[in-house]
Amino acid sequence: xxxxxxMLDADRLFIENIISLSAxxxxxxxxxxxxxxxxxxxxxxxxxxxxxRTRVSFEVGVYQLxxxxxxxxxxxxxxxxxxxxxxxxxxxxxxxxxxxxxTYGQKRVEELARFSTVPVINALTDEEHxxxxxxxxxxxxxxxxxxxxxxxxxLGDGNNMCNSWLIGAAYMGMKFYAATPxxxxxxxxxxxxxxxxxxxxxxxxxxxxxxVEAVKDADVVYTDVWASMGQEEEAExxxxxxxxxxxxxxxxxxxxxxxxxxxxxxxxxxxxxxxxVLEGERSVVWDQAENRLHTQKALILxxxxxxxx
Length: 309
Ligand code: CP
Ligand code: NVA
Description:
Layout: H1 12-31, E1 42-47, H2 53-64, E2 68-73, H3 85-93, E3 98-102, H4 106-115, E4 120-122, H5 130-144, E5 151-155, H6 160-171, E6 175-179, H7 188-201, E7 204-208, H8 211-215, E8 220-223, H9 235-242, H10 249-252, E9 260-263, H11 275-278, H12 285-305
Parallel strand pairs: 1-2, 1-3, 3-4, 5-6, 5-8, 6-7, 8-9
Helix pairs in contact: 1-5, 1-12, 2-12, 3-4, 5-6, 5-12, 6-7
Phosphoric acid mono(formamide)ester binds near residues 52, 53, 124, 264 and 265.
């Protein structure tokens, strides 16, 4: 495995390795112990969309491992003036050991990976957000000590988070219920792939219109923004369509009493989630955000050092 550009690049063993390596790396940080196996390592961090968590956790993560990250955005690089991604891939490969990219279409990341001789990590596209799902699975594992058989309810837009989650849940044998309005379902490719994987792992993949069916006895209630980056113009229209899928205290009553509330953040209070649930005692969103750091460090080590389980 050279790149991590889709959740489909992973499998159960890979995810289990990431979880155990993340636990090891997190422990080091908590004890204040330095762990710098990547002395002199460099990474290019390309962001063609805004970011708080992903950018900072990658920059800090690379630094903590002993390396250096170079941040690039569209405006201040030649990407904004139309330099092809395939040329950027070959040039950056001559300078750095890893390329991380957040952009629009998945095809752009695929092309970058094809022309790059160093590993490429997808830091979010319109279709996927696989790094977030690694952090989410690790967070659930920390709280529940297992993933297989747990029920996850994903409410709202069948967006990039939902696509990547379908695959992650399928690999880990989870029950994944996505409740979305009509016309906002996850992409058929991901639903099909998830169902294929589920046949082997015992996962259950359900796409429904009914938020209560999704949340009923759920171990995890997950939501994300209703208008993703690039969909700002649709935001007002989406607010009306998605309101029945808001995660509020009425809806979460249907979940198990010890459910976890998760959100990749940034959150829009009063839209996809109420203040009460986001700040409530079942919310683990800050741990979830922290775990981006640990799981991405584990991912980098797996990709560049071929770390054994
Ligand atoms: N969850 C997430 O990817 O956040 P950012 O957009 O701040 O990176
Ligand atoms: N679905 C959101 C996730 C942000 C981390 C977006 O793409 O904007």
